[in-house]
Amino acid sequence: MATTNLSNYDKATIPNAKKFRFGIVVSEWNPDITENLYLGAKEAFLENGATEENIIKWDVPGSFELIYGCKKMIETQKLDAIIAIGNVIQGETKHFDFVCDGVTQGIKDLNIKFDVPIIFCVLTDNTKQQSIDRSGGKHGNKGIESAIAAIKMAALREF
Ligand SMILES: Nc1c(NC[C@H](O)[C@H](O)[C@H](O)CO)[nH]c(=O)[nH]c1=O
Ligand SMILES: CC(=O)[C@@H](O)COP(=O)(O)O
């Protein structure tokens, strides 16, 4: 099955992020993965003109808590876009299915309810290796891709 890697982007096609303020909510489950996703996103923001003081990071216990964390961030911070970062890896039970579906639906609902785009950067993988490959490995870094999406959506939000 094809795996799309958008981590290598043409900077000339990305709006300058200097005037935007971004939030990043990061799940503490699988921190080796989520921290790499966060660092990829932060570096991409900075590379495209964002400033350190305009990148707000909050940590939450797990991917399911990304929903409340993003909601609270929207309600208390003045932001142009948010990235929700998590990594859910299949275990022995159906809990994987419920966490993945719950966070997907929750983030979708927030995108509908509020006027701040939330980018879905939750890796939902069968194996740890799949997560490694997508957080700075052979399939790129989904954190970078999410930051580019956040910049584009922040620009779109201005219309
Ligand atoms: N198994 C994983 C979880 N599970 C925890 C849930 O996200 C949540 O924190 C708990 O159900 C309490 O509400 N979370 C991940 O992010 N990744 C996993 O692999
Ligand atoms: C996605 C999860 O919550 C999962 O990693 C927990 O593992 P298990 O299904 O073996 O309890």
Automatic annotation (TrEMBL):
Q: Which reactions does this protein catalyse? A: (2S)-2-hydroxy-3-oxobutyl phosphate + 5-amino-6-(D-ribitylamino)uracil = 6,7-dimethyl-8-(1-D-ribityl)lumazine + phosphate + 2 H2O + H(+)
Q: What is its EC number?
A: 2.5.1.78
Question: Where are the active-site residues found?
Answer: H95 (proton donor)
Reading the lineage from the top rank, the first entry is Bacteria
Which one of the record's GO molecular function terms can you name?
6,7-dimethyl-8-ribityllumazine synthase activity
> What EC class is this?
transferase
Where does the chain bind 5-amino-6-(D-ribitylamino)uracil? W29, S63, F64, E65, N87, V88, I89, F120
Q: In which pathway does it act?
A: Cofactor biosynthesis; riboflavin biosynthesis; riboflavin from 2-hydroxy-3-oxobutyl phosphate and 5-amino-6-(D-ribitylamino)uracil: step 1/2
The protein's matches in CDD domains, at most eight in alphabetical order, are given as:
Lumazine_synthase-I
Function noted in UniProt: Catalyzes the formation of 6,7-dimethyl-8-ribityllumazine by condensation of 5-amino-6-(D-ribitylamino)uracil with 3,4-dihydroxy-2-butanone 4-phosphate. This is the penultimate step in the biosynthesis of riboflavin.
Q: Which PANTHER family match?
A: 6,7-DIMETHYL-8-RIBITYLLUMAZINE SYNTHASE (PTHR21058:SF0), 6,7-DIMETHYL-8-RIBITYLLUMAZINE SYNTHASE DMRL SYNTHASE LUMAZINE SYNTHASE (PTHR21058)
In the record, the note on similarity to other proteins reads: Belongs to the DMRL synthase family.
UniProt name for this protein: 6,7-dimethyl-8-ribityllumazine synthase
